[in-house]
Predict the 3D structure of the following.
Amino acid sequence: MSKLSQACAAAGMAFCLATGAAGAQEAAVTDPHQWLEGVEDPAALEWVKAQNAKAEAELASTPEFRQLEADLLAIYDSDERIPGVYKQGEWYYNFWRDKQNPRGLWRRTTLEEYRKASPRWEVLLDLDALNKSEDTNWVWGGANCLRPDYARCLISLSRGGADATVTREFDLSTKSWVDGGFFRPEAKGGLVWIDRDNVYAFTDFGEGSLTESGYPRIVKQWKRGTPLESASLVYEGQPGDMYISAGHDDTPGFERDFVSRTIAFYNDELYLRNADGTLVKVDAPNSAQKSVQREWIGLELREPWTVGGKTYKAGSLLAAKFDDFMAGKREFDVLFEPTDTTSLAGASFTRNHLVLNVLDDVKNTLTVLTPGANGWSRRPLQGIPAFGTISARAVDSDESDALWLTVTDYLTPTTLMLGDAGEGAAAPETLKTQPAFFDASKHVVEQHFATSKDGTRVPYFLVRPKDLAYDGTAPTLLYGYGGFEISLTPGYSGGTGKGWLERGGVYAVANIRGGGEYGPRWHQAALKQNRNKAYEDFAAVAQDMIDRKITSPAHLGIRGGSNGGLLTGNMLVQYPELFGAVVIQVPLLDMQRYNKLLAGASWMAEYGNPDVPEEWEYIRTFSPYHLFDPAKQYPPTILLTSTRDDRVHPGHARKMHAKMLESGQDVRYYENIEGGHGGAADNKQAAHMDALYLTFLWQQLAK
C-alpha cells in the first residue's frame, strides 16, 4: 500500500542450558561445538567440506539423482517461465536467470512486446558479464530508479547472495556505471533517492553505527560529490533498535519524506520529515502497520486501539486523510474488520481505488473500495477465477487503475493477467500462463482441518493422488513455517511437482499458529512463551494425516527453512515418533545463542531474550540444540544451509549436525558455499540442493 516499503524492505524482513548473560558466557566455554560458529574459519570450512562430501557420496552419486537434478534445473531455467515485470515510465522491467545467464540479466520491454509469446528485451545489465570482468560473484539485489525520467538507478548487489550489499549508481541511458557516482560500500543497509543530487544513506558508518542486530542505526542525507563521511545526520536510533531507514515519496503532488524506526518486528515508529529537517511523529500505535498513499494514511492494527471514543479491533484496516490525521483528527473509515475466519492478506492502491485482498479460511477474495463524499463504496472485483491463490497489485498507482493479477494453486500453472479496478472495466486480459512442468492429472487438492492439543482448529492443504489407497503407505511431505505473521497459501511449484508429486508422493502444507492466515491473533497465539502452540499445531496436522491413513510415521517426512527450520528441528526432538525423515534448512536451532549470531537479536520479539533468566526458562523448551538427547534415536535427518547466509548463522546447522553425529544418529549435512539466506545463489545451486533433499526424502519414505 505504501511507497515507503521499498526503504524498509532492505532489512530483509522477514524473518542460548544456563540462565542469563552469565549462563550464556558459561555455555560459550562449555559447548564443544562452538568453534563451528567461525563462518569462514579454515578448520570449520574443512569440516564443512568433509560433511558435504559424505552427503554427496550418499545422495548425489546415482543416475536417478543426476536425472532429477537435470529435470529441476530445466524447470528453473525454462524460457517458458513467466517473467514478472514492474512498470517505470513507459517501460516494463524484469530480472531474469536461465541456463545462458545463471547470474541474470536486468532488462526491459514495452507492454506491446510483453504481450507476445517471445518479447524482445533490451538488456540493461548482464551480471554474468559483470562478474567476469570484475572477477566477483555478484548476486542481484534490486534497482531503485529516480523519477520522472528513471535515467539514474541505485543498484544493489551482494556477494554470493548475502544480506550485506553494495550500492552503485547506474546510468540507464548509457547502460554503464556512473563515474564518481553514488557508491555505498558493502554492509547491511541501503541508499534511496531524494532527488538527483541527494540520497538517504542508512548503512555502516563505522563504530557504533549499527544496531545489535547488525542493521543500520543511523540514517543520513548524502549530497552528490561529497564524501559519505560528510553526510548530514537525519536520525539516530538506539543500539537495541532493529533497523533505521528513510524514504522519499515521489508521488506527484504528494511529495513527502519519512524516517522509519523499526524497534522490533511489528514495533515501529514513523516520522514525517519537514523541509527544515525537523521530524514529526505519525502518532499511531507502534504495533500498527502504517502506510501513506497520496492523501490517505492507512493503519492496519495488530492490537485493539481505543481512540476518538471508539475501539477498533485488531486486524482492522483504518483509513483517514493524512493531513487531517497529522493535524490531530482521529476519525477513521473502517475499510476492513476481521471475523473468526477472515484476515487481511493485502491492500493495493490504484489511481482511484483500493483493492483489498481478504483470506477466508486461507482462500482469497478481492474487493474494490472507492472513496467518495459519503465514505467508501465497495464491490467485488469482477472476472477473477474462483480457484487458487489470487493476488492483486497496482501496475502504476499514480497513473491508472490497472492491476497485475496472479492466479495459482498447487496443481494449476500460474497465470498472470492484466486487469482494471475501474467500474465497468473489461474482464482481465490473460497475459502469460506458465507451462505445466509436471503431470498434475493424477492428483487433487483438498483442505482439511486438524484439532490441536488445546482444541484449536488448524487448517492444512493436502495434494494427494486421486487413487490414494488410504492404507498409510503413501510417501508424504509436510511443509510448514509458523512465524512472523507469514501466511502459506497454495502456489504452483514445478520443482515440488516434478520431484515429489509426479513420483506419486503426497504433499501437505500446514497453516499453523505463528503465521498470518487468521491475522495478528494467529501470529500472537504462538509468540515467546506460547511458541510450542505452533509445534502442537504441526504435530496435530501430522497426526490427522496418520489417523486418516493418508500416511504413517514411517512414510511421513517434513521440511522447513529459517523459522521453519526451527519448526522441523523441534519436530525432530519433541515428536520423533511421528516422522520417518526430517529436512531442516537454513535453521535456527541454538536458541540460547541465537540473539548473538548475525541478525538474531532482531527476532527477540518473536522468541524472547535468552539472556533474561525467566525468558530462557521458556525458550529452552523450544531450543532443539538443548532438547536433543544423545540417548534417544531420532528419525533420519538432513540439514542444509549456506556459508554466505548472513541472516541466520550457519553455525546453528553445523553445531546440530556435529551433536547428532557424535551420538551416532542417522544424519547428513550439506552447506552451499554461496546462496545467502535463500540457500542458493543461482538456479544450478538451487536445483542441486533441492535434488539432495528430495532424493533423501524419497529414499527414506518410499520404502
In short: The longest helix spans residues 683-701. The two ends are 49 Å apart (CA to CA). Residues 9 and 138 are 20 Å apart (CA to CA).
